[in-house]
Amino acid sequence: MSRYKTKGVYFRDGVAYIRYQDERGVDVRESTKQRSAKVAEDILAKRKTEVATRTHFPTRAFDAVTFAELADYWWQAHGSKTRSQFDYLYPRVLEHFGEKRAREVTPDVVDAFLEHLATERKLSASSVNHHRTIVNGIFNFAVKRGRFDRNPVAAVRQRPEPPGRDRIVSPAEFRMLWDKADGDREMRPFLALAGTTTMRKSEILSLRWERVHLENAPYATLVRTKTGHQRHVPIPQSIVKTLKALPSHGKHEYLFPSRPTARCPEPQRPYRWDFGKQFRALAKAAGIQNVRIHDLRHAGATILMTLGVPDPIVGKVTGHRSRELERYQHLTPELRALTVNLIATELFRAKRARKETGTPTGTVRSRHAAEILGERQHVGSKRDVGGVDGTRTRGLRRDRPAF
User: Fold this and answer.
1) pLDDT in tens, 239-249
2) Residue 194 pLDDT greater than 80, yes or no
3) I need a surface site. Which of 62, 70, 226, 255 has the fewest CB within 10 A?
4) Mean pLDDT calculated for residue range 68-84
5) What are the domain boundaries of the chain?
């Protein structure tokens, strides 16, 4: 920032800014979007005159704006186009703040709303934070588009959420659920898809028959996913017969069409919203505790990793990003035992070899590493300049898989 000789005018990155006090005595910094000091001086003099004659009221233009106006603008231009399913929570936010002017939505008012959701409605911290995200998004969008001047939600903290679940469904538990679901023509296909394809619950329930291909090599096409990328999910041949037994097969657009319930007599979605109540009843009947539908997805990803499937392939199947897969690497006792056993083997192997042969530890470790990498040549030999595929590479390069 460079100073200018006229008080109230300064430059930043070559652009002239002015500084003055508004009608409330609050310091205002404004960009002139010009590079001329003379223009900046003229604009500053004009602002000071407007303040002195009480004709400069930039914040009062927003005093009459209602929250409903900002919310509707956000919903039409942004909210309804996202993949975050705001349409389920948005009506509750609009019901609470819809009658208020935007100026009346203060940090204290927002905090009281979130506290009401947590204590009166008994919502989880994650659900409370989802409501905060909506209100925050409405004001942020309005500020960026020049329809409001500040965001009161910025001063409201998020509710602390518990750490992620480490629960998975073991193969034995899955078979118990499968046996208990015998005769249920919707639950069994749902379990089959959730357990074998690692698809998310929302991805399964929103599937259309036109995107499910059951001939030859079966697969399902997911157009709208959490990550925003379309992907093709393979379906095992063994569950094709189960899927064709769905009541909706050949009769409905969706695999799991919606149906009226006591809570929602007129469903807004053409497909089912949830299977939670039925799944909890099934788990209770099977004698399985502390299990959720999403734990089936954990099981699929963990089984693939336990069997040694590389992370990139697991990510292609499950739709996870590479960083998200890291949390699955500690879910099963088998994986945890595998890692510590490998460490112990390496440590004590080197110790025993040194004791028996008198060979330095570093030499033993190097030879063991060479065995793991499948390198059969002696270090320093002329043949060490190429990989197994015949390409000329540096001797320290590891052989890359073919895929």
Assistant:
1) 999 999 999 99
2) yes
3) 226
4) 87
5) 2-57, 67-155, 171-327, 335-375
Question: Using CA atoms, how far apart are residues 301 and 77, in angstroms rounded to an integer?
Answer: 37
Q: What is the CATH number of domain 67-155?
A: 1.10.150.130
Burial class (CB in 10 A: 0-12, 13-18, 19+), 135: buried
**Domain at 171-327: CATH code:** 1.10.443.10
The two structure tokens encoding residue 283 = 């788990």
Tell me the C-alpha to C-alpha distance, in Å, between residue 323 and each of 160, 183, 195, 298. 22, 40, 22, 15
pLDDT > 80? residue 229: no
What's the full length of the chain, in residues? 403
Distance, CA of 360 to CA of 242 (rounded, Å): 60
Quote the tokens at residue 311. Answer: 């992370």
CA distance 355 to 99: 81
Q: What are the tokens at 21?
A: 């006090």
Residue 212 forms beta bridges with which residues? 220
Rounded to an integer, what distance in angstroms lies between the CA atom of residue 304 and that of residue 300? 6
Single-letter residue type at 218: P
Written as one letter, the residue type at 118 is A
Q: What is the DSSP string of 247-264?
A: TTTTT-SBSSB----SS-
| 310 pLDDT above the threshold of 60 | yes
| pTM, to two decimals | 0.55
